[in-house]
Amino acid sequence: MKYLRALILLGLCLAPGSLLAEDLELDGFLRQGSIVFGKTDPKAEVTLDGRSLRLTEDGRFVFGFGRDFAPGATLKVHHSDGRVVERVLAIEKREYQIQRIDGLPDSKVTPPEDVWERIQKENAKVKAARAVDRPDADFLSGWQWPAKGIISGVYGSQRILNGNPRRPHFGVDVAAPTGTPVVAPADGIVTLSEPDLYFSGGTVILDHGHGLSSSFLHLHELLVEPGQKIKRGEVIATIGATGRVTGAHLDWRMNWYDERVDPTFLVPPMPPSGEGEGG
User: What is the pTM of this model?
Assistant: First the structure.
């Protein structure tokens, strides 16, 4: 199934086994916001648009595409025997929800000047936590929803307030009562645990290795500390209404290095019951 899926995604017309003969497998969607897992000869060197990718001992790797990623990307596998396998990946463009709201007070659109220094310091902390580049491949542990609830916000959506476009929403929102458990969606290491950031309130960042990280925003109670090793399904926090929000929910975001990716590509749709188990 993975072999057939890779053929379809790459748009290749190859004889059976030819993709494997080139020692390159891909699993994922070639779409803006997506996360793709690959496997190749562990002795090879792999680059995406010239950027070197980490490989595990058995040749596994991961990469992702941001919200507005370009229409194409070039994946190259440089084998130890001198062969170079090159794939030009066509990245599907997505349509995002746009909401226009006019007539808002300025205080609801732009933070006051006296908090900008605080915001800049907090942004630096978050950026440093997301820049962690560990060789451990915790992203191979499997994935599940970090919380149970109703999906109230989606990746890529954007508001235009009083005619001014705001930053797009880079996560998926799960609405649930304050105190609802938040679990690790996959194995990882805690790189940030802050109870009161201006925009995101209680915030935890979990690094999954190879540049892939999860951020959990607007938390009520934080139950982990930086440097702590976490297993998939372990409770790390509870849902809250902290930071700049109007109600209790979890905002789950993911990054592949500086690319903001859509975590819903890793889990099945949230069931109507909100049970949220994934695979």
Answer: 0.88
